[in-house]
Amino acid sequence: MALRKMRGSRTYYADDEGLRQLGQGSKVAAVALTAAKRLAGNAQAAGKGNYEAAPSTVTAGWKNERRSGAVVRETTPDVRDARNAILLRVMKTMRGGR
Fold it and tell me: Which one of 8, 9, 14, 67 has the fewest beta carbons within 10 angstroms of its own beta carbon?
């Protein structure tokens, strides 16, 4: 474990290895996929197109490492969903803003 002192802080030390391990863990992947499935389900209910969630990897961290994530995509596009920005509306509703 190599702690790195953060510039501008007297007491905080970053643990980049721990963050990398956390971001690449199976639990983080499961949580990201669960959230993506919920988003896809809500978009499916609100829109006309077909939506699906799938596991994905993202690039993050100081060294641009590959980490766990998920993606929501429209498998059968519908022009009305694009016009109405269904995914954006669903995300806004899910976070509590109406």
Answer: 8
